[in-house]
Amino acid sequence: MEGSEEIVKKLRELLQQSEKRIREIPQEQLYVAVAVLIATFLFFLLIRLFKRTKSNTIILAGLSGSGKTLLFYQLRDGSSHQGTVTSMDPNEGTFVLHSESAKVGKIKPVHVIDVPGHSRLRTKLDEYLPQAAGLVFVVDALDFLPNCRGAAEYLYDILTKGSVVEKKIPVLILCNKTDKVTAHTKEFIRKQLEKELDKLRTSRTALSEADITNEFTLGVAGEPFSFPQCHNKVTVAESSGLTGEISHLEQFIREYVRP
Question: Has 64 been labeled as part of a binding site?
Fold first, then answer.
């Protein structure tokens, strides 16, 4: 008991000394100290809130018939039966990737938006880009050559958008339907797209400023265009929505939407 009383006595003495020292500090200094503490608290609170609100949105874009909707359902359900019809409306959902559904523990869900590829509906893309953590541009590797120019024009518009360049939104060019024997390889598709984008860059920069609708130029002046010249990271990979071989797509998603 005597030991406890001694401890209490010492604590009281310390509190009295602390109160005395605080009273001796000028009020101006106290106000500054309190303001610094509040500012520090708010700073760390904002950092935590920013981390919590980091985007988990992945956008699927590309020409009609490239297989975007099929990939959407593979990601969500691991199924292909609902992706056989060309979608005229955006498919949108927040879910844990099907391949991760059996994992133990908390897994961050992904918000996936499949934007219709029809030219009249592509304006929808502008609504979603500000919230994108990454964009997947799906290319039909089976019927690539007849659609190469159209795919390049769509991709050119994406890569020169201010919302993509300024935010440095990563882009994955996903060569889909590679399970077919006659499908083109990702290396072939990459080279052909780079050539078409180079032609588009030359023709569009030749237009008068009044006719240019793109917000940023593409590539390095005087050099043949290649994807490493882009302001944002652009990678190329393969997939097969029909067989469910979408590992490269899932790796891209989890690189920018942490589980």
Answer: yes
105 is in an annotated binding site: no
Find out whether 83 is annotated in a ligand binding site.
no
Is 62 marked as a binding-site residue? yes
- The residue to which tokens 């300024």 are assigned: 166
CA dist 41 and 102 (Å) reads 39
Rounded CA-CA distance 167/159 in Å is: 11
Mind listing the pLDDT tens digit for each residue in 71-104?
A: 999 999 998 766 555 666 788 999 999 999 888 7
Q: Residue 114, SS3? A: strand
pLDDT of residue 212: 52
Which class would CATH give 54-256?
A: alpha beta
Give the number of other Cβ atoms within 10 Å of residue 66's Cβ: 28
User: Has this prediction a pTM greater than 0.90?
Assistant: no
CA distance 188 to 139: 12
35 token code pair: 């303001």
Q: What is the residue extent of each domain of the chain?
A: 2-51, 54-256
Structure token pair of residue 221: 């002046």
Token pair, residue 94, equals: 């927040």
Is 117 annotated in some ligand binding site? yes
**106 marked ligand binding residue:** no
CB atoms within 10 A of CB 198: 17
The answer to whether 18 is a known ligand-binding residue is: no
Task: Consult the annotation and say whether 63 binds a ligand.
Answer: yes
Q: Is the pLDDT of residue 210 over 70?
A: no
